[in-house]
Design goal:
The chain has two domains: about 5-185 and about 355-445, Aminopeptidase; about 190-350, Alpha-Beta Plaits. By secondary structure, it is of the alpha+beta class. About 45% of the residues are buried. The two termini are about 20 Å apart. The chain has a six-stranded mixed sheet. Strands 8, 9, 16 and 17 form a four-stranded mixed sheet that branches. The protein has helices at about 5-20, 30-40, 110-125, 150-155, 160, 215-230, 240-250, 255-260, 265-275, 280-290, 325-335, 360-370, 390-395, 410-415, 425-445; strands at about 45-50, 55-65, 70-75, 95-100, 100-105, 135-140, 165-170, 175-180, 180-190, 190-200, 205, 290-300, 305, 310-320, 340-350, 355, 375-385, 400, 425. The protein binds zinc ion. The site of zinc ion has 5 residues, from loops.
Length: about 450
């Protein structure tokens, strides 16, 4: 069932993509888009490169269907975050194949998925698959800096070229090994972002006479302490309820999570217990259940002996699907209601998003995964971070983060490689990912 015959082709595709340095900024995605256009044209696919600015290319290709079924977009981003070669054991832009792995920046996030999606398009065309709906490929710029020159720009300026009923993108698909079983995730939700700058005012004075001044740093300390330690109320969204149910199902090491579902009031106590064994998992679940607020930047004071009249701090606030940016803003202001002389500024915000799981595509993904791994469990998951899926969900598309990966490295190690060092993916996983995705798309669209 594994498409062994594509091993060499998809591996070369990924190595080549890694060698095209698309570190964002500046991105320089057009070079990668042109490379992919050439690769797709070899199989007779027509491609278009849409630049949001010089060098910021977005590649779009479409296989037409008869229109009997809804359309499907295979989405990925071409840009990567920076890599410091001094920290890596190989050159991060070499795309070298070593010990059965393809190494380099983007090997997981997310040039491997781009390679897999391109391979799937080529195979659909090569095999002359009679599609009942359009299958679209979009490999975009700028995801790592918010998508303004990539997915967001495409959706705003060329919706007719990229909008689809369904979208498959990054953000899930990774198997979490639990008690010897693979639990495959499908990203169905992501939190919203509210980046907030708060300025505390005071009145200046000499450092030798603290009582005579009104120190803005002290005022900011109260704000940071209040927001940084705040535990917002728990709200269980459908994705998280299903996620916790699957975790609890037959997984002895995490069965306490079942009680979370029965009684959210004791959730934090249960998570404190779980954290003693598996801190990463416990804190991930904690962040899935509520709005979080983290102070991330503080600036105040200019000189050793001057009491400052201003201090500002930035807070990274993440909200749940179902909550709104304006409600979150209001609740933060009311938490600080008794502290005077504060000014608020929203730096950036994105609304949260969630897609349902009761769709034919979701059921197909589960079915195909079970054919590859009969024992596996499948669960929807919410990302506490964000992906380009939000732009498509906003316009009504059902989006799933599904980059199928078996766990051939410890789960924690994979999470560390994303935006970290020695990012790599096994050739075996490239073949697995291509095989699963091809099966899903071919069978769902015919
Ligand atoms: Zn990514």
């Amino acid at each position: 069932m594994l498409l062994r015959e594509v091993e060499g082709e998809v591996t070369t595709l990924l190595s080549d993509l890694i060698r095209i340095n698309t570190t964002n900024p500046p991105g320089n995605e057009t070079e990668a888009a042109s490379y992919l256009a050439k690769v797709l044209e070899e199989d007779g696919l027509d491609c278009e490169i849409l630049e949001s600015a010089p060098g910021r290319g977005n590649l779009v290709a479409r296989l037409k269907g008869t229109g009997e079924k809804p359309s499907l977009l295979l989405l990925s981003h071409l840009d990567v975050v920076a890599a410091n070669p001094g920290e890596w054991s190989v050159n991060p832009f070499s795309g070298v194949v070593k010990d059965g792995f393809v190494w380099g920046r983007g090997a997981i996030d997310m040039k491997s998925m781009t390679a897999i999606e391109v391979m799937v398009m080529k195979l659909l065309k090569r095999n002359n698959v009679k599609l009942k709906g359009d299958v679209i490929l979009a490999a975009t710029a700028d995801e790592e800096r918010g998508g303004e020159a990539g997915a967001e720009w495409l959706v705003r300026n060329h919706p007719e070229k990229v909008m689809a009923s369904y979208v498959i993108n990054e953000g899930g698909g990774q198997a979490i090994p639990i008690d010897g079983k693979n639990v495959f995730t499908i990203q169905t939700a992501e939190k919203g972002i509210l980046w907030l700058k708060i300025k505390a005012k005071g009145s200046p004075g000499h450092g030798s006479l603290p009582g005579a001044a009104d120190n803005a740093i002290l005022r900011m300390c109260r704000v940071i302490e209040r927001l940084g330690n705040h535990r917002a109320g728990i709200a269980l969204i459908p994705t998280v309820v299903q996620f916790l149910t699957v975790l609890a199902e037959g997984n002895n090491s995490i069965k306490e999570v079942a009680s979370l579902l029965r009684n959210p009031d004791v959730a934090d106590n249960v998570l404190d217990m779980l954290a003693q064994r598996d801190k990463a998992m416990a804190e991930e679940i904690r962040a899935m259940m509520r709005m979080t607020i983290a102070p991330t930047i503080v600036h105040g004071g200019v000189k050793e002996n001057i009491i400052p009249s201003e201090c500002e701090a930035v807070f990274d606030c993440r909200i749940l699907p179902g909550q709104s940016i304006s409600e979150a803003f209001k609740s933060i202001r009311s938490l600080l209601g008794d502290i005077e002389k504060l000014e608020f500024e929203v730096i950036q915000s994105n609304e949260p998003s969630e897609s349902p799981t009761d769709t034919p595509l979701y059921q197909f993904i589960v079915k195909v995964l079970r054919e590859f791994e009969p024992e596996c469990l499948v669960t929807p998951i919410m990302l506490t971070g964000g992906t380009d899926s939000r732009f498509f969900r906003r316009l009504g598309a059902v989006c799933y983060g599904f980059h199928p990966l078996r766990s051939d490295l410890p789960y924690g190690e994979i999470l560390k490689m994303i935006h970290g060092v020695d990012e790599r993916i096994s050739v075996e996983n490239l073949v697995f990912g291509t095989s699963v995705l091809y099966n899903v798309v071919e069978r769902f669209m015919t």
